[in-house]
Structure formats: structure tokens, C-alpha cells
Amino acid sequence: MQDELSAATRRALTASDLPEEIQERIFAFISVLPLGADEAYDVALELIAHFEDGLSAGRPSAELLKSFGDERTVVRLIRKTKRRQRPLPRDTEHIMSGDFFLSTLWQYIRYAGRRLAQSPGFTATAVLSLALGIGANTAIFSLVNAVVLKDPPFEKPEELVSVLRTAPDFPYGTFAFPDYEDLRDGTKDVFKGVSASQLLFTQTDRDGGVEMVIGEGVSGSHFPMLGLKAELGRTLLPEDDLAEGAHPVVMLGYGYWQRAFGADPDVVGEEIRLGGRLYKIVGVAPEDYTGSLRGLPAAVFAPLSMAEELFPGGGGDRESRSIQSLLVKARLAPGITMVQAQAVVDGIVDHLLELKLDDFDPETGFLLVPAGDVLTFPGLDPFLHAASWLLMVVVGIVLLIVCTNLASFLLAKGVERRREIAVRVALGAGRRHLMGQLLSETVLLGILGGIAGVLVAFWFLQMLVTADLPLPLPITLDLSMDTTVLGFSIGISLLAGIMLGLVPALHNTRPDVGTTLRDESTGSGGRRRHSIRNTLVVAQVAGSLVVLVTAGLFLRSAQNMDSLDAGFGREPTAILSLFIPTDRYSDEECRVFTQTLLERFRSLPGVEAVGLIGNLHLNAVGRWTESINVDGVEPPPGRGYHVVDFTAVSPRFFEAAGIQVLKGRDFTEHDRSGSPRVVLVNQAFAERFWPGRDPIGQTIRRGDDPDFTVAGVTSNTKVRSLVEPPRPFIYRPYNQVTQRLVYIIARTSIDPEQIALDMLTAGRELDPELWVWEVKTMERLVSAQLFPTRMAALALSAFAVLALALAGIGLYGIVSYAVSRKTREVGIRISLGADHAGMVRLLMGNGMKLVAVGGVIGLAGAYVAARLLTGLLYDVEAFDPTAFVAVPVVLVVTAMLAAYIPARRASRIDPATALRME
Amino acid sequence: MRDEKKEIIRVERELMRGVGPMAVLKLLEDRKMYGYELVQALARESEGVLTMGEATLYPLLYNLEAKKLIRGVWRESQSGRRRKYYSLTKKGKARLASHRMQWERLVEVMHHLGLSGSTSGVDEG
């Protein structure tokens, strides 16, 4: 090819009458051209014509050669231009080779990197603020992903339904075992399978270490029906769940297998001691299935038939329809719709009602819900959804503020670069190319910010996971950075890069460069740039106001909740919750043992009063109710009885808890199992059932069970949550109830944390194998109730402060810029006798106008946001005067400060210096 | 030294997209011209465009041809010599018209900035 070319060019040169030195020059030139034969030959012919024309015009060959120019530049240029003329296949080949794309990309990156390195201060600020913005988004998205988005790995999830037990006061109830059996046996035509699972707490005993863990009892149908495969070994199967107490086998949860067994691959076949009995490990659950309740990963999965052994008295009663603790799922049979299945399920309920069972509430219903619609639990889901959306919107606004802020900085920087860009445009640099360069700068910023942001998020989530949060249950979320989260982070980083760069890039490269040059050169205009920056500041002010007001509302809500009085435990109080196992203690032994424990704890130094309670107030795990009747008080319509919450307490509990006995007496040691059934009721109960009458000695009826006689009245306390109105409540003597899971509380004169640990040690001395469930303080118990509101208030406040700071910086930038444009004017005015204060006002004026406009828009937005959020707030009106007055004041003060600093600096300028400028 | 050379190449490259092409399009507006003829005309009418050497005209022409703004045809002249004659395409005419007004404004502004005329940055480069 090359030879042919050389030969053809040679022939053409020889045929010309050109002097030899010119022929040689052309030949040398052509041979280094990296072109195809036809292209090079064409160039050769043209150059021959060029020199012939030059010679015939009378120019000497030496001069022609000299003015011909530097070959290397020309070779380079020709190579580039000739490539464009090539037919498509050759071009495609070049582009497809990857060189083209990569080299262009690399060029952009290098350019962007150089630009950013030139202003390290700006780059650092930008990366830092982007890191905060993207980090906040990534962290919150990880939470949302873990709570709301991640789907369990069920087979054909569209066929699965959750079955809920509905009652008028609680539409999302769990099932009792007999109800589950009836459902399972009566729906064989419409369901391919029905499964039940139950949360339980049990104790593991390994290598001398005793630990309370969360477990899950599952029906034999559970794993097969959901289509879950074991990570190791096998899943639990129907044959593992035939007779009560007969199947000591378990599957380990993936997390527990990793944590406690170091992911030992040979774990299958080993034994583990649970609740005092050895269980054979048959398998390990898959990593992405942690159990029926999101956030509460089960350490062990055991057959439902073993639930009572693992967690004695924990709701494993298979006879009663009033003990409801099963979560039920079912898989629709092929061709069966939800409506058809619901009709069959309704038939089962009708049948149960016809039997007129004692313990089957006539208002019970069974409701089918697509399993995919249930995240954790229908009662909790709306709150989770709302909270997720709120946080995502808030961090989204924060990122938008970061972007607008940086965009407005870049617009200001664009002023510095205006000549460079204008001249380049004038010299023919394409707009697309320039925009590409400018955008590559901001996209690189976005990527750097994104990398830093992911680190920020990772650090924050690590902190969150390891933090000792006052949660009512040991909630664990899978907050690992999976591909969804990383994809999200990369997406928002690129988006942020483009968002913050687009407006400046469009603006700085707009085609009417002439105007730009003229305007900027005379220092008079840039009006459009100005108005864009102004709009950005208005947006920032408005956005930060929305976030600030939202944070203000949540702070108010948290403040209101903080001032709530639980009605008990105001003094420092330690709490130790224990489980007294049935296999080692009979009921009588259990009573004696708790008595011994209480006496032992009373003797600890620093303890002032000790008491025991079966189900502690504000307990998130369980709730005890009693069905009662009181003569002369009609039950709610459609019901035969009143349902009232109750608990069981030891003598002197009220003293330890700081609950007053207002009338009558406290329980004594004489209120034991054989003695008359006495109760104390709270004030709300007395007022509800015997208004204006003396409650002492009144009778409370319980169907066939022995009646209660009221022995005393106590002050009100919160029962289920801190925000509820006073709720009627019954206290029974612990010795007449005997529950195995008990809370011992001790009012202390010294640090309750220490006392709680002392109680644990003292308890272990009495029984080294004591099942300890929790060691905490009353403060933490109440904090758990306040936690969601406090957390929301804290997170929102942090974001709000960030937003406010960013908006302040943005405003500072605007005023600084405006001031720099007016230095000359200021100089003239001051030299003409204007005073400094007047100057400051003049210079701040524009900035404050922007704050006013942004403020009005922001307040409107904040009001809309507040209206949407009232459901999440406690005792706060949508138009809360404190939030809506205090927040704008904070904003205005910040804004004035941000505008004042540059304005004041300018007003102090020496007139002579100012006049010399520009 | 190296940086200076890079700078020269950069300016040259941008020249290829700015002043030079515009001048060539303008020259071809009235009639067809061949390479050497264009070199002469540019030297006469647009001082400085080909300071990097007369050879730079050819990549410039190939570039315009690639963009389909001009078309080159080999023809025999009256003197019997074969030359490649360049003429404006329709697209080239449109481009010239659309740029003319903006160009005039730019020249005015460049003059205002002290960038136009013989003291232009291009010359110095």
C-alpha cells in the first residue's frame, strides 16, 4: 500500500517540472502523512499544483519553501481533518476502537482536574458541601432501602397474602393458634399453603455465655411455602412441626450464624442449647431473609411446636383463642383471586361465630392483604412510609440548596473566566465543546463529592448501627451498601454535578458573546447573570425556610413530648427484667424465688425501694388485657364486656415506681393465690365506672372467673404510650397471677445504671443461670417512647442548620459580588460625603430584597409542608406561632449578618482606592 | 518551551475553526478559487491568518470540505494546468450569512477590548 503510494507520488512529482528540493520536500511530507493511499495522493497533487503556481508567479523556490511553514503542525492538522472526510466504515472503526471515546473523556477529565486544582479553596468547599448533601441523601436512602424498599426473596411474591385478624379497635391483629388451624384447614381449595410464625425470646447458652436472643417459631409449612432455600443444610419442614415439644431442631439466622458461629461451614449437625434444652442445627437461613418482622432479625428459627419450650408462657398456648401472637401468610392456589379467597375466609369466620365460642370476639374478622403491601406490620407501615418520604424530601431539599449554592458561586466565577470563554468562542470553539468542558468540571466535583458523601454516609450508618439507641426492641436493620444504594449515590452525584453546572454552563457559553464582552468590559451589565444568581438565592432562602420550619415543628413536638409525664418513675430508677424458666421453677418456687430476689435487692446500698411488675407500662412488646363487666355500666355496643389493660405487681411496687395510692391500701404479702381476688384500679378506671361513688369494695366481674374486689385507687399513669389520654387500668397482686417474664424496678439514690448492674450481679449469685432479658433504667424506657420524635427533630435540625448555613453563604456571595461591582460608586458617594451607615444600607438593600421574596415563598411552602406533617407531630398546630415566627427571625438575622459583613467592608474602603479601581 | 509550542498548536487549532475558515468562506463567496490563489488572497486581505505557514491553508480547506461547507473539484485551467477548484456549497453560504452579523459585532467588541487589528493575540502567538 505504502509502496504503491510512494510510486504514484514519485511518478506525479517526476512528471511535474518542480525543482528537486521541492520534490523532495513534498515527498517527505506525504510519506509522513498518516493517511490512506488515495487521500495522500490527492494531497500530493494539490501540493504540486501549489508549488507550480508559486513558481509561475515568479517566486524563488527557496522563499516558497520557507513560507510553506512547519510540517509537523500541518501533518497533525491534516490528519485530523482528513479523518472527517473518510467514508463511514473507517470512521466507525476508529470510534469503535474505543480510543476516540476514551481519549475524549480523558481529555475532559484532565481539563476539569486542572481547573479544579487551580482553585483549591473553592474545590474543597464544593466537595465538602456536596459530601454533606450526598452523604445525607445516601444515609437516608440506605435507611429507606432497608425499611421500605428491600423485598424479601419470596418465590412468586404476587401469590402471597398476609392474613390479619381484625377487631373494631385494632384492624391489624395477629392470630391465635386455634384460629390459624381453622383457617389452614378450611382454605385448602383456595390456598396452596398457609403458614404461621411467632416472635419469641429465648436464651442461648454457649461456652459458658448466656445470652437472650430473638427467635422465631415457624410452622413446618413456612419455609417451603415462601419458597426460601437454606444457605446451608436444609430449611425447617412440615415433618419438624408435628407434635408439641417433640422436634428439638433449629435453623440459625444468617446474621447470628456469622456473629456467634463465625460463619462456620460445618455448623449443620451441631447442637445448641436453647432455653435449657439441646437443639440440633439443621440449616442456616438465607442472608436476605431475616424473619417475619423487618428490623428484628431472628437468631434462630424453630418449629412452632417448640415455641412454648423456647419461650415458656410467651404466647405458645395452643388452646386459647384469646392469646394471639401468630403472623399468618398464605399462598393463593392457581387461578384463585383474592376476592374468591376472601369469600372462603369470611365463611370460616361466620362458622366460628355460629359456634358462639367464649373466647372468639363476635366482631372479629379475617382480612386478606397482598403480602407485598405489608412492610413490617400494617399498623406501623403508614408511619414508616410517611417518615421515609419526609426524610427523603428534606435531604433532597438540602442537596438542592447545596447545588444552587455552588451554581451561584460558579456563575460568579464565570465573571472571572468571561474573557477566556468569550475569546475561545470568538476563535471558534464550539458551544457544545465548551459546555462539555464546563460541565465536566462540575460533574467531576459531583463525583468527588459523591465519593466523600458515601464515606460520610458509611460513617454515619456505622455510628447508627453501633450506637446504643434507646429502642424498645433490639432493632437491627441491614444498612449495608448494596448495589441499589450505590446506584442511587452514583445517580445523585452525577445529577448534582449536572444540576450545579448546567445553569452556569448555559449562561457562560451563550452564543451572543459579543454582548457579554461588551457588557462585562464596561462593567455595566451582566444583568441576566445577576438575575439568575438572584433567583438561585431566592430558591435557597425559600428551601432552607421550609426545612427550618419543618425542623422547628418537630422540635416543638419533641419539646411537648419531653414535658409529658408518664405518671411513674420520675426518680432515678433501675430496671432488671428476668425470665423465670418453668423447667426449673414451679409456680410456687417462682413466687418464693422472686420474693428472695426482691429482699436481696432491697439490701443493696443506694436502693430506696424495690418492686416487681409483670408487664411494665410503656412496654412495646406485649399488652395484657382483661375482659370485665361492672354492674350498671353497659359494655360498648355489640360486645358483652369491657376490655381493660392490666398488669400484676408485688407489694411496695407503687412506692418504688412513684405511683401514689390515693385511696384504700397497697397489696401485702397476704394477697396470695388462695386469698380473695383483690385489685387496685387507677383514677381513670374509678371515674369511668363509678363516677362520684367510692370505688373501694366495688366488684368487677369476669364471667366464670372469680370476681375482683377493689382494694385501692392509684394515680393515673401512661399505659401504652406517652401521648394517650388517661386510660382505665387494673393492678393485680403478682402472687395471684404469676408471670414468668417480670420486671424488677428499684428506686435509687445513686446512679441507676450502676444499681441495675449490681442487681444483675446479685441476681446471678442467687441463680447463675438466671435468664436476663434487659438491664436498663427508667430514663431509657421513657426515652424509647420519645426516640422517634427526638431523632426526627435532631436529624431535621441538623439538616436545617446545614441549609441555613448554605443559604447564608450564598447570600454572602451575592452581596460580596454586588459590592465588588459597586466599589467605584461607593468611592464616589463617600468622597461626596455619604455616611458609612447609609452606604451599608444601600449595599445590603438588594440582598435583603431577595431574602424577603425567598422568605414569602418559603413561608408558603412551609405552611403546605406543615399541613402535610401534622399527623407526625404531637400537640403542634400546622401554623405553630413559635416555629413560624422564630424561624423567619433566625433566617433574617443570619441573612442580615451574611449581607452586612461584605457591605460594611466596602463602606470602609478608602475613596481614593475605590476610584482608582476598574 | 514545550508549553509555548503547545500554545501555538492550540491557537492554530482554534484558528482552524474561527478566523481562517471564515476568511476562506468569504473569499469563495464570489467565485471558485484554487489553493495557491487562496494563499495569495489571504496574504493580501487577511493578514495574519496564515502566519503559521502557507501549508496551513490545506488542512483548513480539508476541514471545511469535511464539514460540507465547500466542495473541491479537479479541473483543467485555461493554461492547461490541473488544479483543485474550491467553491461554496449551499450549507457554506448559509453558514457565512449566519456568522456575518455576529462576526461584525465581535470585531467591534474586540476592537473595543484592544484585541483586534494587527495587535491581535493570534498574531502574537
Note the main attributes of this structure.
heterodimer, A: 918 residues, alpha+beta, 12-stranded mixed β-sheet, 7-stranded mixed β-sheet, 53% helix, elongated, B: 125 residues, 3-stranded antiparallel β-sheet, 3 strands, 13% strand, globular, disordered C terminus
Explain this structure.
The complex is a heterodimer of chains A (918) and B (125). With 918 residues, chain A is of the alpha+beta class. Helix content of chain A is 53%, strand content 16%. Chain A is built from 26 helices and 23 strands. In chain A, strands 1, 2, 3, 4, 5, 6, 7, 8, 9, 10, 11 and 12 form a twelve-stranded mixed beta sheet that branches. In chain A, strands 15, 16, 17, 18, 19, 20 and 21 form a seven-stranded mixed beta sheet that branches. Chain A has a four-stranded antiparallel beta sheet with strand order 14-22-13-23. The longest helix of chain A has 54 residues, at 778-831. Chain B has 125 residues and is an alpha+beta fold. Helices cover 62% and strands 13% of the residues of chain B. Chain B contains six helices and three strands. The A-B interface holds A 43, 45-47, 49-50, 52-54, 57, 67-71, 73-74, 76-78, 80-82, 84-85, 419, 423-424, 426-430, 511-514, 517-518, 521 and B 8-9, 11-19, 21, 34-37, 39-40, 50, 52-56, 58-60, 62-63, 65-67, 74, 81-84, 102, 105-106, 108-110, 112-113, 115, 121-122.
| Strand-residue proportion of chain B | 5-15%
Largest sheet of chain B, order of strands side by side? 1-3-2
Helix content percent band of chain A: 40-55%
Number of strands of chain B: 3
Q: Enumerate how many helices of chain A there are, as a single number.
A: 26
Alpha carbon gap, first and last residue of chain A: 63 Å
How far do the termini of chain B sit from each other?
13 Å
